[in-house]
Design brief:
Strand order of the largest sheet of chain A: 9-19-18-16-15-12-11-10
Number of strands of chain A: 21
Number of strands of chain B: 8
Structural class of chain B: alpha+beta
Largest sheet of chain B: 2 strands, antiparallel
Helix content of chain B: 10-25%
Strand order of the largest sheet of chain B: 1-8
Oligomer: heterodimer
Chain lengths: ~500, ~150
């Protein structure tokens, strides 16, 4: 076996001997065995080589004795052969394997949200104070009718039959994260927080654990290429059904939950034998065309007696507008678009970092296309993939989104430190793991509260920004690109985003 | 009375409760000094019991029919009338360890400095016992309980 001497540690642990009291909390908390207690010397020592930089030890250290720094060992600077590139080559030269990563694309690529600025009212139109005046952020997702007709009784006598919709108290939902990729406690926290906040969590492709049934009215269940846990009960114990075609972190790639994580509960939930790998194929093998997609959409609508909207989730890729248009024409009531910064539990690094397009462009292109074709009302658009704050959300809504999926942000609220090692199953924060030592670390009572707080905070901020713009209902902001201006963007970028430059 | 309740399903075995208990019952009440200079003289009143991934913090249950009080020959082990908390008076304790022998949960310890019993006093005078206040995962909570 090749020696690992070319792989230098990513981080260096610095332990302040003045502050360390040898209480060994760090030793007990590190799943990567970085810290050890030498009983004969009565001293705690650290081996930085396996540190992933998750900060668990530093966060729990009662004296603040532990700090974690980027490894100080620098390579000679090289614009092409960066330290990251060299490390990757060393890793592959040793393993001969595919590089894996967790979470979303970590390259410093342009964040287009930061190149868009919001409007505010001055003099000629009044801004609104959301603390004193009503501010509506209620959002409905689903198909809208072509026109509404009323009987002789007026507005209370609606003749048009409406399609099913789901009602969100705030235009924020939790992205699909399966039980299996995240722990039971993490999945439970998302479901509980969604219920408490009047919005929706998404089961992901791993089925719905029977304990989560009480949250069914706030769950969107996913039908993915592996069809894990899908039966008629599953489809009917939810608020909406989502067909997952692709994922922003790894468009064109399936999924793989290693057999070690498939314990009795996950096996029962996914309806696969215990200990077997849960492999989602790259495509749905019964969907090779828009017509095939239509068949699945209507099979699900039949199975749910046309009572639930059906969502189609696609990764943001080239020609996204045409693909989304096809999905709407196939019968999708909601189209979810996942940008290339979306997270994942595990993806090949090259795919994660190089495939897909920014959600900003995808969203603008899809909204524009659906409007041009006169079918925008037939489906709601949900944007996802790297939403970091409420301002990103407001900008997305102004670009044309009906609601936004937040995944990584939700995990961070629960304690995730983006160490990007989800695929190792050793999540020290108890989120992306099934190890019973680690899953206990996430108390769902605490995590639920933190998630609810996050949604609450963002919702308040959304209202504040809307008020500043003089908008008192999120409906008035939706697709209203007049409220956006671009800075530092080329004419082509501005044209695709459909926004004016600042100063115009 | 209010008692500390352990939630085994959330205990992560970090033992921060022990750390903070030790500091609270040290003379200096300063963590670094307590561990450096006073470790030999103070024993935490809480102890994390662990087997595999199952763990929980255990401290005196402050039983309504406390056997330790009955067993104490000097009257050192007594109940604080106002709060119901079971306390050991170090000035009266002679270190016969009968309280340790009779405690059904093993919550009384031998003090390391003077030969006196050491146990949880529910951090009398504090708003919240320090083990509860500092548990990072709310695995020990202070709750009103009717009985044991």
């Amino acid at each position: 076996m090749a020696k690992k001497w070319l792989l230098e540690p990513d981080f260096r642990i610095e332990r302040d001997p003045e502050r360390c009291v040898q209480c060994q909390v760090c030793v007990r908390q590190c799943a990567n065995d970085v810290h050890q207690y030498d009983a004969s010397e009565e001293v705690v020592t650290s081996d930085s080589s396996t540190c992933v930089g998750c900060h668990r030890c530093a966060s729990l250290c009662p004296t603040g004795a532990v700090s974690i720094r980027r490894a100080p060992l620098d390579f000679r600077p090289h614009g092409n052969w960066t330290a990251e590139v060299l490390r990757n080559v060393y890793k592959q030269a040793e393993s001969g394997g595919v590089l894996l990563s967790g979470m979303g694309n970590d390259r410093p690529l342009t964040v287009y949200w930061d190149h868009m600025l919001l409007n505010a009212s001055q003099v000629t139109n009044p801004s609104i104070d959301p603390l004193r005046e009503p501010m509506e952020v209620l959002t409905y997702l689903g198909r809208r009718p072509e026109r509404v007709e009323f009987g002789p009784g007026g507005v209370k006598d609606l003749k048009t039959q409406l399609d099913p919709t789901i009602r969100l108290q705030t235009p924020l939902m939790f992205s699909a994260m399966s039980y299996g990729s995240i722990s039971y406690n993490a999945a439970l926290s998302l479901a509980r927080a969604a219920k408490e906040s009047g919005t929706f969590a998404n089961s992901g492709e791993g089925g719905l654990h029977k304990d989560f049934r009480p949250y069914k009215d706030n769950m969107i269940v996913q039908v993915a290429s592996g069809r894990f846990g899908v039966d008629v009960d599953y489809l009917n114990n939810c608020a909406a059904v989502e067909i997952k075609i692709g994922q922003g972190a790894k468009p064109g790639i399936g999924g793989h939950l290693p057999g070690e994580k498939v314990d009795a509960a996950i096996s029962a939930t996914r309806m696969i034998p215990k200990g077997t790998d849960a492999i989602s194929p790259a495509p749905h093998h019964d969907i090779y065309s828009i017509e095939d997609l239509r068949q699945l959409i209507f099979a699900i609508k039949e199975a749910t007696r046309y009572t639930k909207p059906v969502c189609v989730k696609i990764a943001a890729v080239h020609n996204i507008a045409a693909i989304a248009s096809g999905a709407v024409r196939a019968g999708a009531d909601i189209v979810a678009i996942d940008g290339y910064k979306g997270g994942t539990g595990a993806a090949p690094t090259m795919i994660r970092d190089n495939v897909g397009i920014p959600i900003e462009f995808a969203l603008a292109a899809v909204d524009t296309r659906l409007r041009e074709e006169g079918i925008r009302h037939q489906a709601s658009i949900v944007a996802g993939g790297g939403f970091r704050c409420s301002a990103d959300v407001v900008k997305a809504i102004a670009l044309g989104a009906d609601a936004v999926y937040i995944g990584t942000g939700a995990l961070v609220a629960m304690g995730c430190h983006l160490c990007q090692k989800c695929y190792t199953g050793k999540c020290n924060w108890g989120i992306a793991t099934q190890d019973p030592f680690l899953t206990k670390r996430l108390n769902p009572n605490i995590a639920t509260k933190r998630l609810v707080n996050l949604l609450r905070g963002w919702t308040h901020e959304i209202m504040e920004m809307m008020g500043g713009m003089g908008v008192n209902a999120i409906e008035s902001l939706r697709g209203n690109r007049e409220h956006l201006r671009g800075v530092g963007l080329s004419d082509r970028e501005l044209a695709i985003l459909g926004i004016k430059s600042a100063g115009e | 009375m209010k008692r500390i309740v352990a939630r085994e399903e959330f205990c992560i075995g970090c033992r921060l409760c022990e750390v903070h208990c030790l500091v609270q019952h040290s003379k200096s009440k300063k963590i670094i000094k307590a561990f450096r200079k006073e470790r030999e003289t103070v024993v935490p009143g809480v102890k994390v019991e662990q087997a595999g991934h199952v763990s929980f913090a255990l401290q005196c249950r402050h039983c309504d029919d406390a056997l330790c009080i009955e067993a104490c020959m000097t009257g050192a082990m007594h109940r604080d009338e106002a709060t119901g908390v079971v306390l050991s008076d170090p000035d009266k304790c002679v270190g016969c360890w009968m309280c340790i022998m009779v405690c059904p949960v093993g919550a009384v310890n031998r003090g390391t400095g003077r030969r006196v019993a050491s146990k949880c006093d529910l951090c009398m005078g504090e708003k919240m016992p320090v083990c509860v206040a500092n548990c990072p995962n709310e695995a020990i909570v202070l709750e009103e309980t009717d009985d044991e």
